[in-house]
Specification:
This protein has one domain (7-53). The chain has two helices and no strands. The chain has helices spanning 7-30, 34-53. The longest helix is centred in the N-terminal third of the chain and has 24 residues, at 7-30.
Length: 58
């Protein structure tokens, strides 16, 4: 005997899987890791501090 399949459940699972695939693709294309964001922030702070140290006071 065949197993009864709930079509609504099947459609929702397919939609979730597609959304997950899309999200993973977007994260790979646009996303940065937390370490990358922190390193970029630290570099920007060092650059700003270096620039401030060379500023002349009038």
């Amino acid at each position: 005997m065949a197993e009864i399949t709930n079509l609504n459940r099947f459609r929702k699972q397919q939609a979730r899987a597609e959304a997950r695939r899309t999200a993973d693709a977007n994260a790979a294309k646009h996303g940065r890791t937390k370490a990358q964001r922190l390193a970029e922030k630290a570099q920007a702070e060092r650059a700003a501090q270096h620039l401030d140290q060379h500023r002349k006071d009038d």
